[in-house]
Amino acid sequence: MKKIITLIACIISISAIAQGQKWSKEKAKKWYAEHQWITGANFIPSNAINQLEMWQEATFDPETIDRELGYAEDIGFNTMRVYLHSLAYKADPKGFKKRINEYLKIADEHHIQTIFVFFDDCWNKDPKIGKQPVPKTGIHNSGWAQDPGYPASKERANDKELENYVKDILSSFGKDNRILIWDLYNEPGNNGKENESLPLLKNVFKWAREANPNQPISAGLWNWGYQELNTFQAQNSDILTYHCYSGPEEHQKIINLLKTHDLPMICTEYMARTRDSHFFNILPLLKKEHIGAINWGLVNGKTNTIFAWDTPIKTGEEPFVWFHDIFRKDGTPYHKDETDLIRKLNQTK
């Protein structure tokens, strides 16, 4: 009987390893302690309007990626958050993975790790493979693409294809130390979907656990009214990630609330200057709290994220106050005092 119990215990243990389990708090804290302070930006090259234009073979541009990641390295950034897209994989699985590896090689040469994002409920609901639209003048993220889109995100008939995609990427790169974490679903429930996104959110966590990557998995909290989504995200993420585009007082309240989970934290989206979320008042706060800091935007480009979400400029004239982004295409900073501060907080020359 003792041998049978031991055998059953071994089988359960092996199964848990194969399936993967949520990390313990001890494991998460040990992982976080092994990294220097995590700072960086959400990155898309300035000549790409969306994830598809970044990743499709015809428009993948290593030269621009290399140059612009150089700007990030120069101010001491060590992490970029980068969106993938399932349609780019569907069109060319082998080529897509080859380009991911090429991107990672470039980033690694700049001493930058990557947070990859799988699904996304933000902006345009009908992504299409092939040539992407041109930017709409003065409109923030006019061409950004949801993934897998809508109603595709709520149609369970798509799940097998999406599962194959997620598991192939995770099995290909799940032991790659150039990748910091996997962000499984950006802002689930956005665009009025709310709990319609919960089944896909649950599935992508399940698929990721089955793939069992070495890196932690997470999905960022972002809308504090979405109780069911927030509960699932917080309870199933290995480390806690969140978004906050508010000023320092509100941001501190969110930090205090999330501290109750007793997990390492990374703010994977912040910095919207016209909403009082600046580098000078948020980045020191995050460093003091030892929370990873990933702002939105690196280089002003086709995403038009220098324009605010709800304040289009019909002429396309550059706003006096940029909403997001740090650099112009030539590497000149929007405000040198900002890059000086970032460099100083990152303790670089």
TrEMBL record:
N-terminal signal peptide: 1-18
Region (Disordered): 134-156
Top-level taxon of the source organism: Bacteria
Stored Pfam families: Cellulase (PF00150)
Keywords attached to this entry: Glycosidase, Hydrolase, Signal
UniProt-listed SUPFAM superfamilies: (Trans)glycosidases (SSF51445)
InterPro entries: GH (IPR017853), Glyco_hydro_5 (IPR001547)
Domain Glycoside hydrolase family: 72-298
Presence of keyword Signal: yes
Family the entry assigns: Belongs to the glycosyl hydrolase 5 (cellulase A) family.
Protein name (database record): Glycoside hydrolase family 5 domain-containing protein
